[in-house]
Amino acid sequence: MARHLVLISDAEATCGVEEFARQTARRLGGSGATHVLDADMPNLTKALAGAADLIINLPVVAWKKKLAAPILAAAHARMAGREVTIILHEWADLALARRLSYLPLLPLATRILFSAPEVMAQFESTPVSRIVTKRRAVVPIPPNFAVPGWTSGSARSDRLAADRAKGTMILAQFGSIYPKKDPLVLLDVAAELMRRGIELRLVFIGSFVKDGGTVEADFWARVEALGLKDRVEVTGYLKDAAKLYGLFAEVDAFVYPLSEGLTSRRASVLAAALSGRPVVVSAPQRADSLAHHRLFNVLLKAGTLQLVPRDATAAMFADAVLATRGMPHRPVMDGRQIDAVWSDLIATLSA
């Protein structure tokens, strides 16, 4: 009988948080099971039978359609004498309306786990932290994708390979495209490299967030203004890990300008780094940002993660990118190191 019941969504295109929830249930093995988040309490009652702990990851996918469902689920679990674990992946970065929607939910938690020290600090600086459980901890967030044992080519990876053969530098960023990843800064970096005479292509491996704003329109307007129209490509959402890492194999360097600095919740950075390609990324803001996450520390020591100052200009990023040329492309990391991060997480969940 499953000891932990992990709430998931029925979404087909998963975000990082959703993928984490599903992989967590799989990694829990026989002690973990999943239940699709809805307001069907009889089905939840059946799913909770025998379980000791209900696990809810926030933010919730399609939250506006599920305002009441996580609250009802947590309240139901508490009334049934179960523990409620909330894993909070973001806080200050969430829209105010979204944070407010979680206020009735958070006091129902018997413990709260955080994806990074920064997220914990953001939460603890808000009034709601004074009325919720003090059972809190930071947990390591493993990569979104398991590194496949083999890769698969595609028409897109074939085009990139042909460009590389001609001497074109392939830069990329993996993950959802949204303002906190500063995609416009990366466009400026590409423009700076081209001003220096570097032939390049820039590939965003992912899709734009659907937030009702102007993220995508602003992105393409900036591409046009910088004269990068024929140099920039957005792949859209890719689910197949073999094809994904087939694309990664044709990348010379990944680039992540992050105004907040690198934090341990950046699973997309981990996934990119596991390709063995160098990752140029803004340095963490805190000295302890990565201390709890063994995989980030391994990647830093290996030189796969190349840190630049958080206030780095496009020119400084361009210098760092050019410095990666000639660096050996390290083989994909031993899967046992990824398993070790999952073991750290599962040990915390099971404590």
UniProtKB/TrEMBL annotation:
Pfam families to which the protein is assigned, alphabetical: Glyco_trans_1_4
Keywords: Glycosyltransferase, Transferase
Keyword Glycosyltransferase: yes
Molecular function GO terms recorded: glycosyltransferase activity
Domain of life: Bacteria
SUPFAM superfamilies assigned to the protein according to its UniProt record, in alphabetical order: UDP-Glycosyltransferase/glycogen phosphorylase (SSF53756)
Protein name per the record: Glycosyltransferase
Source species taxonomy: Bacteria, Pseudomonadati, Pseudomonadota, Alphaproteobacteria, Hyphomicrobiales
